[in-house]
Amino acid sequence: MFFAYRTNQLSVGSVCVQIITLPIGRFLAATLPKKDVRLPLTNWSFSLNPGPFSIKEHCLITIFAGAGAGGLYAIHIVTIVKAFYHRDIHPMAGFLLAQTTQLLGYGWAGIYRKALHLKEKREKGGTTRLQFFVIVFIGSFAYYAVPGFLFPCLSCISVLCLIFKKSVAAHQIGSGLRGLGIGSFGFDWSTVAGFLGSPLATPATAIFNIMASFVLVIYVLLPLTYWTNTYNAKRFPIMSAHVFDYTGRTYNTTRIINQAFTLDAEEAESYSKINLSIMFVLTYGLGFATLTASIMHVALHHGKYV
Is this prediction's pTM over 0.70? Predict the structure, then answer.
């Protein structure tokens, strides 16, 4: 979550922790003393080295890493309330908000685990997963100094924007940050893996599925809905995370909130409905569709194993 506020997020997923803790766990199991340590003034004791590093310990570490490494989409509600409305949310309310969204994903993961978990497949003498991870880790760490410090503009180079600097249409089509990104190139790994995770740890079928979906949404649905002015799309930026009023200005949310921090229905009716950029309209709509789509995918392809 600390990296979520960057323009290009850094992704340190549970897979990285899972791989790197295996040699660490085995090293500690081989070197830590097996002597029991007794807690003062109690009859409780524990061993720093109860035995070999087990699958259960590795699984528990992965669960903790997954719970802490992944960002909570719902936590943005807490951030918005504190940052923009200068109000505090009770910690228990924030905790329950996070749990109601996170437990849904963990529940589905538990149901699908048997069907979707696969063992490692590689040729004899080939590169193991751990060796591949170490190579990529060292290489990406060394390379990040170039786009991160020496040459930051390598994060996104938009050819059309450089050629047609004053053209709004060119920026809408070519900008990698505020447009469709046609003709844009990124040489920063945090730009590539910031939002969808590392493609190196994703099966090829999933990558091709994401690429096909990206082309369909960004290069077909988005231009079609924007340039046909669906939902008055041209009145707002083609790609923006902000909310707008009917005139295209940034929506004044404080205007429709009363002193009790509840919605003032009369003021909201007289002011304007909330409008989104067409990109966010598609994002929210398709985002909700993924919930049922994941169930249907498992039911169709792996239903007999569940």
Answer: no
